[in-house]
Design brief:
With 214 residues, the chain is an alpha+beta fold. It contains six helices and ten strands. Helix 1 packs antiparallel against helix 3 and helix 4 packs antiparallel against helix 6. The chain is rod-shaped, with a radius of gyration of 38 Å.
Length: 214
């Protein structure tokens, strides 16, 4: 069987999704291996004794090379050593849509309702949904004296229920309503809270966070 015919049989037996194949070509003893090397040079073969090994792809079909070998009367045998098939694309990861946050003012009302009745100071974090909200959000919430925490999209502030250092709960709610009116979204978290503190010649207690007093 001529080489071109052997290749047609091999090609029909390859998987439908093949993308490359490692092929060996063993030529007959009476063939001139140097002449064969010249003809198959376009396939960038590795020479192994009197034989050759090379990679083929669907877009790099060796049929023309094998027909030329046939025309020159060069006999041999073609074998497929290995094949590689196309890698299936991974299934897209389905992500559940992020639950919409309640309006910030509504979140604050819920937080205040859950605090102890005698709470006096709270350290609160406003985690914004986008870094695009930081500049405008900090401006609208200026009465809270917000501080940005590291490089995150979070602003932190203090609130005091009666006196001392911290924004009054009613003013916190008003600032958050301003954010809600401009569709600035996020979530509120109480990080620390104290109850029934007594201020003796001070504006109230402080916390040390990240080496800073807040």
């Amino acid at each position: 069987m001529q080489l071109a015919e052997q290749w047609r049989e091999i090609e029909r037996s390859l998987p439908e999704d093949w993308r490359s194949a490692r092929v060996s070509l063993a030529v007959a003893a009476d063939a001139d291996p140097n002449r064969v090397a010249l003809i198959v040079a376009s396939l960038a073969p590795d020479r192994v004794g009197p034989g050759f090994r090379f990679d083929v792809r669907p877009d790099r079909n060796p049929a023309t090379v094998f027909r030329r070998l046939d025309r020159e009367g060069i006999r041999g045998r073609i074998d497929v050593l290995d094949t590689e098939t196309k890698v299936a694309a991974p299934e897209p990861v389905r992500r559940e849509p992020r639950a919409a946050h309640a309006p910030l003012a509504h979140q604050w009302a819920g937080i205040v309702a859950e605090l102890p009745p005698d709470w006096s100071e709270a350290y609160v974090e406003l985690e914004l949904d986008s870094s695009d909200f930081i500049s405008r959000g900090a401006l609208l919430a200026a009465p809270l004296n917000p501080a940005r925490y590291r490089s995150t999209s979070s602003l932190r502030f203090r609130s005091a229920s009666r006196s001392g250092y911290g924004t009054a709960p009613a003013m916190v709610r008003r600032c958050l309503e301003r954010l809600d009116s401009e569709r600035i979204t996020g979530s509120l978290h109480v990080l620390r809270v104290l109850s029934h503190t007594t201020h003796v010649s001070t504006q109230g207690p402080v916390w040390r966070v990240g080496g800073r007093l807040v």
